[in-house]
Amino acid sequence: MGDERMTLHVNGQDYTIADAGVRLLLRVLRDDLGLMGAREACGIGVCGTCSVLVDGRVMSSCLMLAAQAAGHQITTVEGLAEGEALHPVQQAYLDHFAFQCAYCTPGFILSTIAMLNEDPSIEDEAIRGYLAGNLCRCGSYLNILRAVKAARDSRPQTQEAL
What we know:
Blueprint: E1 5-10, E2 13-18, H1 25-32, E3 51-54, E4 57-60, H2 66-69, E5 73-75, H3 88-95, H4 105-118, H5 124-130, H6 141-154
Parallel strand pairs: 1-5
Antiparallel strand pairs: 1-2, 3-4, 3-5
Helix pairs in contact: 3-6
């Protein structure tokens, strides 16, 4: 590897990363930036634990090269809260105990935000389909669905993207 540098825009800040071009975005977020919310589990993009938002869309950071993310807005779960105030979706997950071990929770939260931005009044059955790419090994699905519905139902329909 050379000393090629690239700039990534993560959680509202620019970071200059050396030798990131052929590395996975997941590795750069964790190893270079210390952002541990995106986690590796399957390594093939089917479990959702490595999910991040790239320009508001859910992406598997275990499949995306850091170079592909350059020039885009990357949001991790660490970038959601404003000071001590949790993002409304984070708060809904907490209020409804939508986790056990919480390994999958950051990916579910980011997927929920993307889903509600795409369809603020999404129907219950469609929620299940949208979140099918996120797996919870503890089986907290009922509480996750409760949290998602609470976040959806408490959100003003005219609210801008989260």
